[in-house]
C-alpha cells in the first residue's frame, strides 16, 4: 500500500510537471517577487520613491501577473476536475485538499486586504481629527506661551530689582561703592549675571557682570526709548537663549535698568519647531486621500497575488502532503489530549517527512518521560506547599521570606497582625520599606557567613509599640546571593511581665525596709515640737517649719510606700456580677464635683450592663484614669487650654468585650515609649510615682482584660481604651496568663 501511494504521488507530480513545465513556477515566483518589491517600494525601504508614475507602472505590472496566474490556476483546475470525472485514483481527496487550500488561502488573503485597508484608513483618520488639529495648534500656543512665561518672569524680577534700586537712590547719592555692592547683591539674588544702569543715550552708569554672556547685545536707542517706568520691556533674542529686559528707574532721573540672563533654550527653540510641525501636518492632510487609495489598491493586488500563488502551490503539492500530514495531525491531536504514548509509522520513502515522523516520535518519548517526572515533582511540591502553608498559618510568630534582592516572597498571617498591614502590602515589597528596623541585621546577615543571627527591636505600628525578637536564618550559607527567613516573636508582654515582676519584688523590699522607721521618725518630730516648742524663743518659725517639713515628708514617704505595697500585693479581685454603667456614673459624678472647671460628657447605654468584675478595684482603676485625664488637661498652658473636656464612652457592641474609652483634650501621650507608661515607675508627670497606670493595667489583667494608650482621634489630647470580658474567663491570680493574652486581642479591639 505504501509503494502504491508513493507511485501515485510521483505520477501526479510528473503529470503536473508535464502540464505546466517552467511556466507555473516562473509565474508564481515572479508574482511573489513583484508583491514583495511593491510592498518595499510603498514602505519607503528602497531608493525608488512611490511617485504617481511609479505606482501606475507597478499597478499595471502586478495586474498582468494576476491575469497570468488566473489562467494557469484555471487550466490546472479544469484538468483536475476532468481527472476526477475520469475516476483517477485519489482524485476526490485531491479535490477536497485543493479546496481546503483554496479556502485557507482565500480567507486570510481577503481578511488581510480588508483589514489592511481599514487599518490604514482608521490609522490615518485619528491623526486628522479636529482634536488632533486643535492639539497641534495648542502645541504652537504652548511653545509661545512658554517663551512668554520666561519673558514675564524676567520682567517681574526686573521690576523687583528696579524697585530696590529706586529705594536705594540715597545710597547712590551718598556712596557709589555701597550702592554698587547693593546692586550686585540684588542681581545675584534675582539671578541676573548681567545688570547695567544706562543713561537715556546709552551711556553706562553702573555695570555688573557676574559671568560673561556670549552674544549679549546692549539695548538699541529704540529699546531705550520704548522703555517705561511702569512695566519692564522684555527683549526676545534673535538667536541664542539670552533674554533681556529694560525698565526706567523713576528715582534716577530717567536712567534705564538693563538686565540679561540665560533662560531655558527650549523657550527659543520650541516655537519655530512647533510651527514647522504644524505646516508638515497640514501638508500630510492634503495628501491623505491619495495615500489611502494607492495603498488600498496595492494591498488588493498583493492579496490577489498571494491568494493565487497559494492555490497553485496547493494544486501541486496537496497529494504529496496528504498521507504523512494526516498521520502527523492525528498523532498531534492525540498528544494534545494528553496521550504521550502515540507513535507515527515512519516510511523512508517520504524523505524529509519521514525524518519529521522520527523527530515527532522522539519528541513524544521525551515528552512522556518529562511529563511523568513533572507530574511526580508537581505532586511532591504541592504536598510540601500545603504542609508549609499549614505550618506557617498555625505558628504564632511572624515568618517572612525574602530573596537575594530583599523582596518579600512569603509572609504568614501572624506577620500581617504584627506589622498591622495586609498581605498585598507585604509580598513583592522590599523588607527595608516594610520593616526598616531590621535593615541593619539583614545587611549584616547578607554580607556575612553566619547561618543565624538574632536581636531585639522596637517597632511602632498604628501608635502601638512592641518589642520583637528577630531571628534571621540563611537558606544557603555559602552562596553569594542568599534567600533569608526572618522570624518575628512578639515578646512585649513577656518583657513587661519580667519588668513588673522585678519591680514588684523591689517594691516589697522597699516597703519592708522603709516603712518600719517612718512612724518613729514622725512621732519623734511631733514630740520635739510639743516638748521644745515653748522653750525655743529665737527662730521659732524656722523650728516649726523644720518639724512640719519632717512630718509632711514622712507622710509623703508613707504614701509612696503604700503605693509600693499596693502594687506588690494587689488584692485578689472578688469578681461578681455588677452593673458597669452605674460604676462609671459614680466615678463621673465624683469627678464632676471635684473638677467643676472641666466639662465632662458621657456616652453610656440607657440600661444597666451587667458583667463579672470587682466593683471596688474596677472603680479604683476608672477613677485613676479619669484623674490622670484631669491632670493632663490641667498641664496644658492657660493660653492654650481653652475649655477642658473629658468624655467617657462605653461600647458594648463587641461580641466578647466591653470597651471603655476615656478621652481628654490635655497634653496627650508621648509618641515614643507610650506603652512603657504601663510599666512600673515610668511617668512623664512631675511628682508622679509611675505606679498609677501599672496598677490599672494589673487590675484589668486580673479581670482578663487590658488597656492601651492612643491619641485623641478628634485632635489634641489622649485616649485610654480599657476592656474587660463580658463573661468570666480567667480566675484571679492568673495575671501573667491574662497579660499574655491581652496583647493578642488588641488588634481585633
TrEMBL record:
Protein known as: histidine kinase
GO molecular function: ATP binding; phosphorelay sensor kinase activity
EC number(s) from the headed UniProt entry: 2.7.13.3
A cellular component annotation (GO) from this entry: plasma membrane
Membrane topology: Multi-pass membrane protein
InterPro entries: HAMP_dom (IPR003660), HATPase_C_sf (IPR036890), HATPase_dom (IPR003594), His_kinase_dom (IPR005467), HisK_dim/P_dom (IPR003661), HisK_dim/P_sf (IPR036097), NtrY (IPR017232), NtrY-like_N (IPR045671)
CDD domains: HAMP, HisKA, PAS
Regions annotated as coiled coil: none
Broad class of the protein's primary localization: membrane
Amino acid at each position: 500500500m505504501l509503494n502504491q501511494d508513493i507511485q501515485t504521488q510521483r505520477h501526479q507530480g510528473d503529470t503536473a510537471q508535464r502540464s505546466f513545465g517552467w511556466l507555473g513556477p516562473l509565474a508564481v515566483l515572479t508574482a511573489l517577487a513583484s508583491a514583495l518589491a511593491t510592498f518595499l517600494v510603498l514602505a519607503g525601504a528602497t531608493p525608488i520613491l512611490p511617485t504617481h508614475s511609479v505606482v501606475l507602472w507597478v499597478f499595471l505590472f502586478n495586474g498582468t501577473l494576476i491575469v497570468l496566474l488566473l489562467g494557469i490556476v484555471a487550466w490546472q483546475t479544469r484538468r483536475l476536475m476532468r481527472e476526477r470525472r475520469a475516476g483517477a485514483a485519489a482524485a476526490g481527496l485531491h479535490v477536497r485538499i485543493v479546496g481546503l487550500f483554496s479556502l485557507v488561502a482565500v480567507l486570510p488573503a481577503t481578511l488581510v486586504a480588508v483589514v489592511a485597508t481599514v487599518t490604514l484608513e482608521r490609522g490615518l483618520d485619528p491623526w486628522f481629527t479636529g482634536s488632533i488639529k486643535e492639539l497641534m495648534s495648542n502645541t504652537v500656543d504652548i511653545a509661545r506661551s512658554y517663551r512668554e512665561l520666561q519673558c514675564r518672569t524676567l520682567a517681574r524680577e526686573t521690576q523687583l530689582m528696579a524697585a530696590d534700586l529706586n529705594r536705594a537712590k540715597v545710597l547712590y547719592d551718598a556712596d557709589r561703592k555701597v550702592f554698587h555692592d547693593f546692586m550686585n547683591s540684588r542681581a545675584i539674588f534675582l539671578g541676573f549675571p548681567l545688570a547695567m544702569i544706562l543713561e537715556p543715550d546709552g551711556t553706562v552708569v553702573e555695570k555688573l557682570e557676574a559671568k560673561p554672556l556670549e552674544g549679549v547685545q546692549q539695548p538699541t536707542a529704540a529699546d531705550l526709548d520704548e522703555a517705561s517706568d511702569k512695566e519692564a520691556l522684555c527683549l526676545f533674542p534673535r538667536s541664542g537663549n539670552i533674554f533681556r529686559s529694560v525698565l526706567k528707574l523713576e528715582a534716577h532721573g530717567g536712567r534705564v535698568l538693563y538686565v540679561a540672563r540665560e533662560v531655558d533654550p527650549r523657550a527659543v527653540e520650541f516655537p519655530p519647531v512647533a510651527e514647522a510641525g504644524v505646516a508638515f501636518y497640514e501638508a500630510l492632510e492634503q495628501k491623505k486621500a491619495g495615500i489611502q487609495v494607492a495603498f488600498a489598491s496595492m494591498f488588493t493586488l498583493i492579496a490577489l497575488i498571494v491568494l493565487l500563488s497559494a492555490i497553485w502551490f496547493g494544486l501541486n503539492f496537496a497529494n504529496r502532503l496528504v498521507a504523512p500530514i494526516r498521520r502527523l495531525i492525528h498523532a498531534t491531536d492525540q498528544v494534545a489530549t494528553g496521550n504521550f504514548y502515540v507513535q507515527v509509522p515512519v516510511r523512508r520513502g517520504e524523505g524529509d517527512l519521514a525524518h519529521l515522523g522520527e523527530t515527532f516520535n522522539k519528541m513524544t518519548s521525551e515528552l512522556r518521560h518529562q511529563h511523568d517526572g513533572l507530574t511526580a515533582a508537581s505532586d511532591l511540591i504541592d504536598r510540601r506547599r500545603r504542609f508549609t502553608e499549614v505550618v506557617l498559618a498555625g505558628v504564632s510568630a511572624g515568618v517572612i521570606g525574602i530573596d537575594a534582592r530583599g523582596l518579600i516572597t512569603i509572609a504568614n498571617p501572624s506577620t500581617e497582625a504584627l506589622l498591622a498591614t495586609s498581605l498585598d502590602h507585604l509580598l513583592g515589597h522590599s523588607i527595608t520599606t516594610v520593616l526598616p528596623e531590621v535593615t541593619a541585621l539583614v545587611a549584616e546577615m547578607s554580607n556575612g557567613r553566619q547561618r543565624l543571627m538574632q536581636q531585639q527591636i522596637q517597632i511602632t505600628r498604628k501608635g502601638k509599640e512592641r518589642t520583637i525578637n528577630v531571628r534571621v536564618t540563611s537558606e544557603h550559607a555559602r552562596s553569594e546571593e542568599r534567600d533569608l527567613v526572618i522570624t518575628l516573636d512578639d515578646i512585649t508582654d513577656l518583657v513587661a511581665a519580667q519588668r513588673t515582676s522585678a519591680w514588684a519584688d523591689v517594691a516589697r523590699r522597699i516597703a519592708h525596709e522603709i516603712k518600719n522607721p517612718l512612724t518613729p521618725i514622725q512621732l519623734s518630730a511631733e514630740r520635739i515640737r510639743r516638748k521644745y516648742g515653748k522653750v525655743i524663743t529665737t527662730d521659732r518659725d524656722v523650728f516649726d517649719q523644720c518639724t512640719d517639713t519632717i512630718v509632711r515628708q514622712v507622710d509623703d514617704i508613707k504614701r509612696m510606700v503604700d503605693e509600693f505595697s499596693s502594687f506588690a500585693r494587689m488584692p485578689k479581685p472578688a469578681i461578681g456580677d455588677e452593673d458597669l454603667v452605674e460604676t462609671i456614673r459614680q466615678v463621673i459624678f465624683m469627678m464632676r464635683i471635684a473638677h467643676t472647671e472641666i466639662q465632662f460628657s458621657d456616652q453610656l447605654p440607657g440600661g444597666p450592663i451587667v458583667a463579672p468584675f470587682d466593683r471596688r478595684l474596677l472603680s479604683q482603676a476608672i477613677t485613676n484614669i479619669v484623674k490622670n485625664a484631669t491632670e493632663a488637661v490641667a498641664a496644658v498652658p492657660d493660653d492654650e487650654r481653652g475649655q477642658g473636656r473629658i468624655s467617657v464612652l462605653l461600647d458594648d457592641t463587641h461580641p466578647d468585650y466591653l470597651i471603655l474609652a476615656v478621652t481628654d483634650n490635655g497634653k496627650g501621650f508621648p509618641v515614643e515609649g507610650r506603652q512603657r507608661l504601663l510599666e512600673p515607675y515610668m511617668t512623664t508627670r512631675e511628682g508622679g510615682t509611675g505606679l498609677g497606670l501599672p496598677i490599672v493595667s494589673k487590675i484589668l489583667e486580673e479581670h482578663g482584660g487590658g488597656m492601651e494608650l492612643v491619641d485623641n482621634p478628634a485632635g489634641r489630647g489622649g485616649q485610654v481604651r480599657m476592656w474587660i470580658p463580658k463573661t468570666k474567663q480567667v480566675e484571679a491570680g492568673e495575671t501573667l496568663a491574662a497579660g499574655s493574652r491581652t496583647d493578642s486581642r488588641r488588634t481585633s479591639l
